[in-house]
């Protein structure tokens, strides 16, 4: 068991038989009344995001998640095939399980597959990925680095706001937690 006062982003907990990952949390100490913790939780089985409030000091069960390093091989219909880097064993995950992560996945990318008691839950991406710009408006001479942004379509189909100087064919570093542009690669 773990106290809600010890919440941190990325922690996996069990509530009423469901697995949740803490996406965001905030300790609130109102002037009148007891302190509480407001949290944003993602259900690891179906991907739904819910907001839940806990009393300060309340206990929840911590879930032990196993991470295995695997390589993303290819998409086959509605499923995606991953290979264990040590045993060469292949595992399939459905598009529904990794819907958000698909925006950042490229073939041959190394990721961690998360499982709980043998049940495959999803993919843990690296903090940043390098993706190529497939479509964007051309940069205009005189545009500055701090002058604004324009949309760019990346090779995985993800649309990101980028500075005006970014052109088609550029490789960009993208933050996987919020899908934002970091820098050119």
Question: What gap, in angstroms, lies between the N and C termini?
Answer: 43 Å
Helix content: under 10%
Q: How many β-strands, per DSSP?
A: 16
In CATH's first tier, which class of the largest domain applies?
Mainly Beta
Topology:
Blueprint: E1 2-3, E2 12-15, E3 18-28, E4 36-43, E5 49-55, E6 59-62, E7 66-76, E8 79-84, E9 90-94, E10 110-116, E11 119-124, E12 128-136, E13 150-154, E14 159-162, E15 171-175, E16 180-184
Antiparallel strand pairs: 1-6, 2-3, 2-6, 3-4, 4-5, 7-8, 7-10, 8-9, 10-11, 12-13, 12-15, 13-14, 15-16
Family: Belongs to the elongation factor P family.
Pathway: Protein biosynthesis; polypeptide chain elongation
Protein name: Elongation factor P
Write structural notes for this entry.
The structure is a single chain. Strand 3 (18-28) and strand 4 (36-43) form a beta hairpin. The protein has no helices and 16 strands. The strands form 3 sheets. The chain has a 6-stranded antiparallel β-sheet with strand order 1-6-2-3-4-5, with no helix packed on it. The protein has a 5-stranded antiparallel β-sheet with strand order 9-8-7-10-11, with no helix packed on it. A 5-stranded antiparallel β-sheet has the order 14-13-12-15-16, with no helix packed on it. It has strands at 2-3, 12-15, 18-28, 36-43, 49-55, 59-62, 66-76, 79-84, 90-94, 110-116, 119-124, 128-136, 150-154, 159-162, 171-175, 180-184. It is mostly beta strands and 185 residues long. The mean pLDDT is 87. The chain has 3 domains: 2-62, Roll (SH3 type barrels); 66-124, Nucleic acid-binding proteins (OB fold (Dihydrolipoamide Acetyltransferase, E2P)); 128-184, OB fold (Dihydrolipoamide Acetyltransferase, E2P) (Beta Barrel).
